[in-house]
Amino acid sequence: MPSSFCPENLVKIQMQGSKLEKLWEGIHSLTGLKEMDLSESRNLKEIPDLSMATSLETLNLACSSLVELPSFIQHLKTE
């Protein structure tokens, strides 16, 4: 994403099959983010820190290229 990108107002990220390697740098207050779908993003190496995404309900990372999962993943609730 461009360096001027401001993700704070995002509610839904739907980028299946994207060619991005990463979305953005740093930690952002993503309190409105409810859904993130990055499935089939084969170039995706890392995901941003979503520890401040307190409203996150759905996270789809069905892609095989992630190098590692960030530590915030362990605090997410599963259904």
What does this structure look like?
The structure is a single chain. The chain has strands at 12-14, 35-37, 58-60. The chain is largely without helices or strands and 79 residues long. The protein has one domain. Strands 1-2-3 form a three-stranded parallel β-sheet, with no helix packed on it. It starts with 11 loop residues before the first strand and ends in a 19-residue tail after the last strand. The mean pLDDT is 81.
What key attributes describe this structure?
79 residues, LRR_dom_sf, little secondary structure, 3 strands, leucine-rich repeat, 3-stranded parallel sheet, globular, single chain, 11% strand, repeat
List the helices and strands and how they pair.
Elements: E1 12-14, E2 35-37, E3 58-60
Parallel strand pairs: 1-2, 2-3
Keywords: Leucine-rich repeat, Repeat
InterPro entries: Disease_R_plants, Leu-rich_rpt_3, LRR_dom_sf
